[in-house]
């Protein structure tokens, strides 16, 4: 039996900044929200990411090691990410860190790989 990560929940201090980053850089749209006001807002993005607003969050402890994100155009994603002054990591140009410490690895997917993943309905 094969498995895949359906979503990963991450605490973030600035939910709006993260929503804009994942939408504009990685083209990950909102799938669902809990419709609450701050400080307990939560948003689920297509592609398996849940963001939980935590206004008291000040570091990377308890978050995760990194996000591995598959993309159809690694070069374009990296160009957009570095235009936002993210910090390149020692692992390579496709690894970077967001301002509050979240590390991302951008991986080039094979043809149609992203759409095939997004077509999966995890609730069936």
Automatic annotation (TrEMBL):
Coiled-coil residues: none
GO molecular function terms attached to this record: dioxygenase activity
Chain ranges passing through the membrane: none
UniProtKB keywords: Dioxygenase, Oxidoreductase
Entry annotated with the keyword Oxidoreductase: yes
Superkingdom to which the source organism belongs: Bacteria
Family annotation (SUPFAM superfamilies): Glyoxalase/Bleomycin resistance protein/Dihydroxybiphenyl dioxygenase
Domain VOC: 4-124
Protein's name in the database: Glyoxalase/bleomycin resistance protein/dioxygenase
Source organism (scientific name): Clostridium scatologenes
């Amino acid at each position: 039996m094969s498995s895949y990560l359906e979503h990963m929940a991450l605490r973030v201090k600035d939910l709006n900044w993260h929503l804009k980053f994942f939408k504009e850089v990685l083209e990950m749209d909102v799938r669902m929200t809990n419709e609450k006001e701050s400080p307990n807002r939560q948003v689920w993005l297509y592609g398996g990411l849940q963001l939980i607003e935590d206004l008291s969050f000040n570091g990377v402890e308890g978050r995760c090691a990194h996000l591995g994100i598959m993309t159809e155009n690694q070069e374009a994603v990296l160009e957009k990410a570095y235009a936002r002054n993210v910090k390149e990591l020692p692992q390579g140009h496709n690894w970077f860190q967001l301002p509050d410490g979240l590390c991302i690895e951008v991986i080039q997917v094979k043809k149609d790989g992203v759409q095939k993943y997004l077509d999966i309905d995890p609730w069936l």
